[in-house]
Amino acid sequence: MPASDPPEWVGKPMRWAQLVLVENDPGQYDRDFWLDYFRRTHSQAVNLSAGGCVAYYPTRIPLHHRSAWMGDSDPFGELVEGCRKLDMVIVARTDPHAVLQEAHDAHPEWIAVDEKGQKRRHWASPERWVTCALGPYNFEFMTGVHKEIISLYRIEGIFINRWAGSGMCYCEHCQRNFRNASGMDLPRTNDPQNPARRAHILWRQQRLFDLWRLWDSEVRKIHPPARVIPNTGGGALSGLDMDQIGQRSDTLFADRQARRGVMTPWAAGKNGKEYRATLGNKPIAGITSVGLEEPYRWKDSVQTGEEIRVWMADGVANGLRPWFTKFSGTLYDERWLKPVEEFYRWHHGAERYLRNTEPLARVAMVYSQQTAWFYGGQQAGRKVEDHTEGFYHALIEARVPFEMVHDRRLQPEGLARFKTLILPNIAALSAAQCEQLRDFVKRGGSLVATLETSLYDEWGAPRKDFGLADVFGATFRGPGEQRMQNSYLKIQRDAGGQFHPLLRGLEDAGRIVNGVQRIEAAARGDYPNPPLTLIPSYPDLPMEEVYPRVPDSGLPGVFLRESGASRVVYFPWDIDRTFWEVMAVDHGKLLRNAVEWVTNEEPPVSVNGAGVLDVTVWRQKDSMTVHLVNLTNPMMMKGPYRELIPAPEQTVRVKLPSGGKAKKVQLLVSAQTPRVQEQPGIVQVTLPSILLHEVIAIDL
Ligand SMILES: [Zn+2]
User: Fold this and answer.
1) What is the tens place of the pLDDT at every residue in 270-309?
2) Helix, strand, coil share of the chain (percent; to 5)
3) Cα(119) to centroid of ligand 1, in Å?
4) How buried is 470 (Cβ within 10 angstroms: 0-12 exposed, 13-18 middle, 19+ buried)?
């Protein structure tokens, strides 16, 4: 995409609405109700269904199926007209992932093919066919659709849902194009160390970036401010390189709509951190579905108001602009309307303090898509993301404000704002990336790393030793144990009989449980008195056999290094992943202490009081804010929230940005007058309680 200034419209909307029409909405749903709801919620931008699976406007493109209910009307155009009167930014929604029989018969080459050579019927709507994302359907047909929509309506952009394919495709185009690009046949294994699979991971991305560039440049030729914004992006497990996405996009929409299964509300905010890692301060909307997001896909369902609110609040606390989405213009259950309206009205009132210019966190956690693609492969959930989630949760419990950093953004300018980087089993790192981290440490930066960090190159091929062996002060000696049973770590005193700060809160423990996986690592130089030492596994049955065979192996359970202002903690075991699985409080303390010890400075904000809070800290043009999202709830790990339960009194100590002085301190949610104490450079605010979300706004 050509480098150019972002169009003026992208920064404007703070609140988004999305209405996804279903085919029989035209002529049946209440358009005026929706326009009124957009107005009442102060929504400044809207995403409206236009084309793809179903066209909601009088398209002239053959095989672009018009809604059978629209007759001669123009449902999309009528909504566009109404939203323009509300001065809203308008982005059309298309979805190219499925076509009807007529298109299948006219263009069999548009259809995705499975590994047995069969054309793929749609899994949920068997009268439809799944399209190939990487061939002429998207490159030709959908290009025409996008050009037509922009020509007819001259709106601000197009958001494309499910544009990246529905799994592996073996159609004739994919076969030929992949062979031309790589000289290989399409892979039939998921092993990322297979050369064809590795090539395909990159080739698919290249095709999708080419497609995005094509769509975007074609609509810009017609209407220069228009942008094509594919539904893409995410964390380590996402398939398209976030580094490139961040460079190409002027704005993006984070599509994690709600919780499913075991998932914490902080997952909403994690999106914000992951996207911001490469988009920087470009606007990012966080999509919240008003419906349940479980595998059974009750798309016409409604969440509890409390669940909608915690999801939106955690997104906003983490820098996302709220976006509500409703599928179907016909409402079967209206209970979501009021909580969304209330939240949006609050957001509108507080808007001045929600236009963040930068986060003030000093700690950042690295995420690595290449580690997921080439080291994690099919096990990336367990081998990669579970480490991140565990460390993330430990930081939430410790109330440490933090950012996330993409592993391709380790240049000095990107890291300058951080004192500490966390590497949760970031196994696959290139020599150049290791060098960037080494330089960060030389500049006085600190690290906390776990397990196999830097033990593989950027392609997931093992190294003989850690790429960061000198930084860790540890050398790789062997793969260790994949699954430890009944193993412990002994709490040790130093030569002077004192406990290291890493052990704060564990002084009386004697020993703590070990993790599940460890690798063998040895100190590179003298390393007397490691604070933790390994007690190897011993039988856990029969009970008569349950006694340690080796009471203390002397093998370090952690490596610590100090050099100038820099401090490094390396855990040669899966402390973060085990914490996510077992939630042992001792592991949470160790992770907290490790981050505090290496960071070794007054934090931008510290919060004292009972409960679980997601704490973030931000700078705006003339102010700063501290967000506190109360996650203290029996439904914290698995929604939906039934009720909001207030957190008790919290004392919040805020470090003012250098040179800053507090002119005014407000609580933006409860609107109470807080108890405030000031010292030079510090504001201390006492909050009597937090129901769900509080924002301390400090005018500077
Ligand atoms: Zn294909």
Assistant:
1) 999 999 999 999 999 999 999 999 999 999 999 999 999 9
2) 30, 25, 45
3) 10
4) middle
pLDDT bucket at 3, cuts 50 / 70 / 90: low
* Cα 108 to middle of ligand 1, angstroms: 11
CA 142 / ligand 1 centre spacing (Å)? 15
Cβ–Cβ under 8 Å, residues 326 and 20:
yes
Q: Strand runs (DSSP E) across 208-331, as ranges? A: 227-230, 252-254, 284-289, 321-327
Which residues have a Cβ under 8 Å from the Cβ of 85 and sit 6 or more positions away? Answer: none
Alpha carbon of 114 to ligand 1 centroid (Å): 9
Alpha carbon distances (Å) from 214 to 151, 209, 219, 365: 16, 9, 9, 34
Mean per-residue pLDDT, 314-331:
97
Pairing, β 358-359 against β 321-327: unpaired
Alpha-carbon gap, residue 36 to 86, rounded angstroms = 9
pLDDT at 156 over 60: yes
Work out the mean pLDDT of the chain and round it to a whole number: 97
Question: φ and ψ at 466, to 5 degrees?
Answer: -55, 140
Of 171, 144, 177, give the one whose Cα is nearest residue 158.
Answer: 144
Radius of gyration over alpha carbons of the chain, in Å?
27
pLDDT digits (tens, 9 = 90+) for 544-582: 999 999 999 999 999 999 999 999 999 999 999 999 999
pLDDT in tens, 197-234: 999 999 999 999 999 999 999 999 999 999 999 999 99
**pTM of the predicted model over 0.90:** yes
363-367 and 358-359 strand pairing? unpaired
Beta bridge partners of 684: 653, 677
Each residue's pLDDT tens digit, 356-390: 999 999 999 999 999 999 999 999 999 999 999 99
- CA 133 to ligand 1 center in whole angstroms: 6
Residue 177 Cα to ligand 1 middle (Å): 9
What is the whole-number distance in angstroms between the Cα of residue 47 and the centre of ligand 1? Answer: 28
